Amino acid sequence: MDKRPRISVVHDANEARDQVRLWVLQGHNKEEIYVLAHDDARTDLVADYSDAEKIGMSEEGLWNSIANMFRSQGDELRAKLKALHVPDAEAERLEQELDDGKIVLLATGGR
Question: I need a labelling partner for 49 at 20 to 30 A (CA). Which of 31, 38, 40, 58 fits?
Fold first, then answer.
C-alpha cells in the first residue's frame, strides 16, 4: 500500500485554511492533515488558523524528534517530510518551496 501523503503547496494561511476545508470535504480527517512552514512560529500560526496539525513526535518518532534539535533547518524540514512518507526527491523540492516562503500541507490516510 502506498503511504505517500497528498501534498499541496500554498502561499498563505488563507489558502491553507481553504485547502484543509476542501480535503475535509473530500473525506480526510482533520487529524490527518499537517502543515509545515519554514520556521516553527509560522507553522504554529498557520496550524492554528487552518485547523491543521503540526508534524510532531508521534509522526516523527522519539529519536527523530531528538535528532531534529541538532539538525540544520533544512535537514529538520526534510526529516519531518520523510516522517510522513514523502520520497527523498520530493522532500528536497518541497524544502525549496518552504525556503521560498510557501507553506506545505500534507494529508495522510484515506481519501
Answer: 58
